[in-house]
């Protein structure tokens, strides 16, 4: 049985990797001899898997052999059937290929015949095609000519209809025909028939002018009956005419008819859009208002053009005031008479605003004509700018002229005029600064006797300078262009920096005597300017300018010119920075430097007065129990008086915020001086330590108690030194031993820091306290 199993091992090699076990040919000795070592191992694994290691399972070998032989026979039958079917399929494929090749050859022959016939046919039909194309082009030309003639005929028909309507006084029908002609004109804008467009535009202009002139003539006569225009304010209401109802009906009819002509008027009017330099384009005036403004236009040009005495370059307020008076005098008529008619026509037109626009165009024309003649006269130019600003303010406020519509301020914003404006502003501001700094009362305060008002104690020169900047702000606040506003802002920052430099120069002149009143006035001036600029940085107007800086910076950066760095732009956009940030930093530096110089001078005086106190006999002073009452050391009196006098002087001369900085700085320096030059310089017995503590806590600290509730917090080194020096002998010994030993590992007692904190010592380090304890003279055994 073992031999049979071994003999059939080679037949089962492929059954482990395929669904069916495919045995090799048993009769081929070469195949059996070709088994390599890998195949032999595979067969052994298969037998081991099928039969296992149990000898009792060998009885299943015959059954396994029969199964393998059955699969072999089935596979042989499949191979034989496949080999017999393959020739039939190959033969069928070859037959199909030959048939396809024959079909292709036949089709190629037919294609060649058809191509030859088609070429011959095209050659024969080519003359016919050329003739047909000529006929088509001729038909197209005739068709376009017919449409051209139809358009001409339609124009003639509309023209004849308008003529007939005007002859029969059918104005509404004539207006409808003009509107139809205007619609046709708009439709021909994209056409290449230039002559037709010209003929239609000329025809439209002809009939439009005739109708407009007729309606305007009737409208002017009617306005005369209604006492239009009102040149001066009416003293008393006019009595209504007898035929008031008829006049009102006629007014309604004429205004409605003129409004119906608006579309054609906008189309053909050469002045449909304003062409004045510097003034943004706006829609043309409505026809009724154009007619109503005519008499006022005649009056304006009569008085303010030519050689009339009223036409004076030095008196722009004459014509600007006249325009405002006409607006005010006739606004009631526009609201009461014209606006209801406009509302009934369905037009979105404000009668009062239209009147202001019509009159404003006269002022724009006059200002555009006069400005170039004033660029070389600073006085007249400044006067004109002032009057224009005042006019613009009254126009927007009193007459409610919309901010979206252009006024007069667009005209001075042309490059040449704006540059002149900036130059004049700079020149006059610098002249004003020179004048006020050279004045006698430049460094005095006009409110010094009024404590409630004079909180900042700003000198007159600083107040005048900031008032000057505020006036400049008010002048350019109303400008309609943010780019122009930013140029004025740059001018203001330039002026502030110039004034800071002037303050620095004057401060250096006064630096030899920092205790002089002028030095304090310079310090107050720097603080006042810094305070006002900080307030401006939070103002809505300057925040809007800050956003404009970021926006314009981004736009110009896209054009290749980075205006702001990424950090600066980010700070401005997030409102962390401000437009005056760099100036505030410079002013703070100046303020800090001046306060430092001032305190250095005060401390120099204090040190001189404290020499006797510093060298006092601290080792030999009597103890507290030997004295009836404690009193201030006689050697400390000059120092205390010096500190008191300087504090009072600084409080009188410096504003509140600066004085707070000054006394706190003085306290800090006094604390360091007393600790370094008095405490650490001497040795103290019990009486000396008690006297030092009394001098400090009962005399020096109360000097600063007028300005804060706990002045000892500003003298922590001195206060804690007095605590250490005044300890009892026992407490001092325990503390010294603890500080010398320290808190070692595993120590159960408190740490040096904890012990010091219990005594009220927080600022001094353990090493410093040990030094102070060594300054005590009264130790046991000494």
From TrEMBL:
<dbReference type="Pfam" id="PF04437">
    <property type="entry name" value="RINT1_TIP1"/>
</dbReference>
<keyword id="KW-0175">Coiled coil</keyword>
<dbReference type="InterPro" id="IPR007528">
    <property type="entry name" value="RINT1_Tip20"/>
</dbReference>
<protein>
    <recommendedName>
        <fullName>RAD50 interactor 1</fullName>
    </recommendedName>
</protein>
<dbReference type="GO" id="GO:0006890">
    <property type="term" value="P:retrograde vesicle-mediated transport, Golgi to endoplasmic reticulum"/>
</dbReference>
<feature type="coiled-coil region">
    <location>
        <begin position="58"/>
        <end position="85"/>
    </location>
</feature>
<dbReference type="GO" id="GO:0060628">
    <property type="term" value="P:regulation of ER to Golgi vesicle-mediated transport"/>
</dbReference>
<dbReference type="GO" id="GO:0070939">
    <property type="term" value="C:Dsl1/NZR complex"/>
</dbReference>
<feature type="region of interest" description="Disordered">
    <location>
        <begin position="1"/>
        <end position="37"/>
    </location>
</feature>
<dbReference type="InterPro" id="IPR042044">
    <property type="entry name" value="EXOC6PINT-1/Sec15/Tip20_C_dom2"/>
</dbReference>
<dbReference type="GO" id="GO:0006888">
    <property type="term" value="P:endoplasmic reticulum to Golgi vesicle-mediated transport"/>
</dbReference>
């Amino acid at each position: 049985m073992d031999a049979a199993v071994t003999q059939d091992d080679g037949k089962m090699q492929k059954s482990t990797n395929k669904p069916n076990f495919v045995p090799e040919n048993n009769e081929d000795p070469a195949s059996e001899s070709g088994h390599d070592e890998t195949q032999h191992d595979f067969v052994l694994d298969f037998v081991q898997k099928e039969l296992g290691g149990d000898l009792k399972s060998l009885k299943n070998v015959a059954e396994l052999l029969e199964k393998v032989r059955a699969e072999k026979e089935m596979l042989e039958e499949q191979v034989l059937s496949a080999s017999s079917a393959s020739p039939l399929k190959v033969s069928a494929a070859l037959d199909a290929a030959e048939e396809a090749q024959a079909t292709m050859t036949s089709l190629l022959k037919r294609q060649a015949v058809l191509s030859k016939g088609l070429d011959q046919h095209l050659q024969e039909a080519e003359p016919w095609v050329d003739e047909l194309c000529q006929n088509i082009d001729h038909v197209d030309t005739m068709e376009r000519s017919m449409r051209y003639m139809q358009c001409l005929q339609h124009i003639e028909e509309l023209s004849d209809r308008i003529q007939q309507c005007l002859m029969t006084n059918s104005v509404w029908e004539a207006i409808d025909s003009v509107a139809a002609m205007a619609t046709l004109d708009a439709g021909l804008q994209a056409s290449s028939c230039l002559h037709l467009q010209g003929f239609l535009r000329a025809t439209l202009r002809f009939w439009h002018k005739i109708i407009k002139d007729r309606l305007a003539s009737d409208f002017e006569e009617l306005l005369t009956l209604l006492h239009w225009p009102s040149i001066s304010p009416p003293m008393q209401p006019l009595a209504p005419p007898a035929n008031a109802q008829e006049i009102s009906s006629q007014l309604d009819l004429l205004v409605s008819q003129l409004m119906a002509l608006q579309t054609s008027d906008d189309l053909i009017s050469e002045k449909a859009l304003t062409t004045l330099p510097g003034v943004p384009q706006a829609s043309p005036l409505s026809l009724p208002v154009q007619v109503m403004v005519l008499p006022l236009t005649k009056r304006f040009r009569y008085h303010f053009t030519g050689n009339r005495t009223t036409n004076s370059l030095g008196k722009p307020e004459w014509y600007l005031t006249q325009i405002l008076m006409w607006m005010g005098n006739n606004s009631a008529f526009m609201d009461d008479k014209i606006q209801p008619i406009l509302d009934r026509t369905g037009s979105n037109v404000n009668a009062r605003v239209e009147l202001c626009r019509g009159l404003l165009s006269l002022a724009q024309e006059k200002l555009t004509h006069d400005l170039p003649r004033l660029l070389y006269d600073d006085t007249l130019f400044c006067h004109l700018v002032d009057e224009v600003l005042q006019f613009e303010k009254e126009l927007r406020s009193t007459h409610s002229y919309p901010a979206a519509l252009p006024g007069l301020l667009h005209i001075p914003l042309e490059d040449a005029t704006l540059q002149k404006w900036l130059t004049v502003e700079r020149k006059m501001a610098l002249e004003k600064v020179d004048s006020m700094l050279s004045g006698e009362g430049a460094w005095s305060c006009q409110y010094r006797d009024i404590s409630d008002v004079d909180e900042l104690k700003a000198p007159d020169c600083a107040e005048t300078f900031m008032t000057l900047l505020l006036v400049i702000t008010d002048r350019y606040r109303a400008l309609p262009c943010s780019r122009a506003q930013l140029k004025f802002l740059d001018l203001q920052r330039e002026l502030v920096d110039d004034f800071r430099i002037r303050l620095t120069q004057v401060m250096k002149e006064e630096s030899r005597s920092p205790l002089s009143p002028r030095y304090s006035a310079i310090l107050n001036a720097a603080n006042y300017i810094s305070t006002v600029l900080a307030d401006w940085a939070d103002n809505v107007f300057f925040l809007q300018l800050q956003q404009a800086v970021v926006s314009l910076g981004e736009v110009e950066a896209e054009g290749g010119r980075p205006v702001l760095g990424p950090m600066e732009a980010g700070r401005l956009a997030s409102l962390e920075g401000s437009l005056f940030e760099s100036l505030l930093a410079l002013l703070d530096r100046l303020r800090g430097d001046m306060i430092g110089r001032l305190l250095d001078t005060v401390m120099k005086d204090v040190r001189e007065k404290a020499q006797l106190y510093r060298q006092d006999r601290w080792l030999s002073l009597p103890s507290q129990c030997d004295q009836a009452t404690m009193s201030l050391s006689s050697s400390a009196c000059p120092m205390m008086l010096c500190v008191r006098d300087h504090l009072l002087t600084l409080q009188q001369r410096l504003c509140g915020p600066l004085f707070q900085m000054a006394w706190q700085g003085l306290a800090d320096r006094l604390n360091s001086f007393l600790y370094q030059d008095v405490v650490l310089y001497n040795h103290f017995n019990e009486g000396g330590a008690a006297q030092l503590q009394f001098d400090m806590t009962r005399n020096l600290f109360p000097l600063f108690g007028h300005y804060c509730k706990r002045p000892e917090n500003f003298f922590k080194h001195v206060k804690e030194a007095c605590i250490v020096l005044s300890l009892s002998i026992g407490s001092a010994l325990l503390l010294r031993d603890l500080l010398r030993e320290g808190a070692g590992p595993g120590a159960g007692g408190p740490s040096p820091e904890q012990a010091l904190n219990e005594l009220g010592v927080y600022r001094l380090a353990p090493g410093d306290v040990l030094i102070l304890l060594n300054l005590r003279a009264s130790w046991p055994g000494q």
